[in-house]
Description:
Number of helices: 6
CATH topology of the largest domain: DNA polymerase, domain 1
CATH class of the largest domain: Mainly Alpha
Low-confidence stretches: none
Order of helices and strands: EEEHHHHHH
CATH superfamily of the largest domain: Tyrosine recombinase, N-terminal domain
Strand order of the largest sheet: 1-2-3
Distance between the termini: 81 Å
Number of strands: 3
Helix content: 40-55%
Structural class: alpha+beta
Strand content: 5-15%
Mean pLDDT: 90
Radius of gyration: 26 Å
Shape: elongated
Amino acid sequence: MASVEKRIRGGRTTWVARWRDPDGRQRKRSFAKRSEADRFETTVAADVLRGDYLDPDAGRVTVGEYAGRWLAAQTFDPSTREQVALRLRLHVLPQLGSQRVGSVRPSTVQAWLRGLERLAPSHVRTIYQHVSAIFSAAVDDGLVRANPCRAASVRAPRVVAHRVVPWTAEQVLALRSALSGMPSS
């Protein structure tokens, strides 16, 4: 199913791991050390047998490219789509957009969140939920194994609920009185 072979070119020795993916395509990857190639070959063969195979090249798409595809596939109404696109453009893509989906780690997400501290916690939480949804879709599409936003080390900002204190009847009547005395436009 998978194999490792020695290759010498220009006096340089490399080790090539070859395997067939679940679609039957021949794949290969080169390594400097035999032990690395053997370990990779064993892992890939086990993943294929378990049905957990992930294409090693799948996570090479950038966050920006994938976020664009994700947004296009959503069934948002037009105003929601505009708001999500704006949040992504202003707060996500400048920091994460050029990174490969497969290279984003929980520490990357946590550092990105720290950079958003100047924004209201409720706004940051909304942006974070969009990013988490993008990575959940990447997991579903087989680009990455896990959503880095869902790691235990990543903390979304807490939104403090403020207690709503309704106006008293006197305050409502005073406002009503003040408004009724205003000239109409």
